[in-house]
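Hi all, long-time lurker, first post. I run a small reading group and we've been trying to get comfortable going from sequence to structure in the token notation. Rather than ask abstract questions, I figured I'd post a concrete chain and ask someone more experienced to write out its structure so we can walk through it together at our next meeting. Sequence below, copied exactly:
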Amino acid sequence: LRGKAMLLGICVHLLVSAWMVIDDMMDKSETRRGKRCWYKVEPKADQQACLLVSFTFTLLKHHFRNDPNYANLLEIFFEVDNKTCIGQVMDLMLCNPKGLDKYTISLYNRMASGKTAYCTFILPVRLCLYLLNLTDENLHHWATTVADKIGILFQTQDDFIDVYGDNNQTGKIGTDITNGKCTWLVVHALTNMNDNQRKTFVQHFGKNDDESVNIVKGIFRQINIKQKFFHYGNQEFEDILNEISKIDEKYKNIASAMNNVLMLFYRRKM
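-- Answer (accepted) --
Happy to help. Here is the structure in token form:
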């Protein structure tokens, strides 16, 4: 079982790594985890990302084609790759400071679910269930719902860290404001601005200069976006705990594991 878990973990890592390379290219990021982004080092990074995806399915076939859950494993990997692709495309399409009316919480949640939750949380959680030969559809629906909520919360934390995080600790230089990204902070700021603040925001959001970035941060400060974010995080935390508690008693060990996942990421430094 441990050997299978390690192999599936490698497959997840390959797929996630591919999308990280692509994400950095789309965001024009400079660093990730304290080092230069791979596309800044390797001119053929886009081709190598494609190879990583290919290797994922090659490895899966080589080691699991005789496994009774092989079809399920393939299906979830294909689904996650598709959802992540859609999420990344949405992220790129919504990156338009001239189209702020499209920056809504519903679109944001769909984007965050696709680009983050499926690959980072839903995939490994459901793989664990298949590894334990747990194929009950209701269980997988519950696991997907919980992991999706955790993933969206995780993405909102990333949005917060991009603006307020310490680059020396995160290893990544924030680019969301200069790129005009649709983030949790921006979506909620837009619904709390007065007309003058919105006019100023439109003039400076998406501009690649320090003065504009500071002006946008100043508007965030005026509308107390930090306090709103922490209030939201606490509410979502309680909502996820409530969702976890809905699982059948016979799966209490799985519920405990999901609680641990939530605690691990909810309490990360921001």
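A couple of things your group might point at:
The first strand starts at residue 31 and ends at 32.
The radius of gyration is 20 Å.
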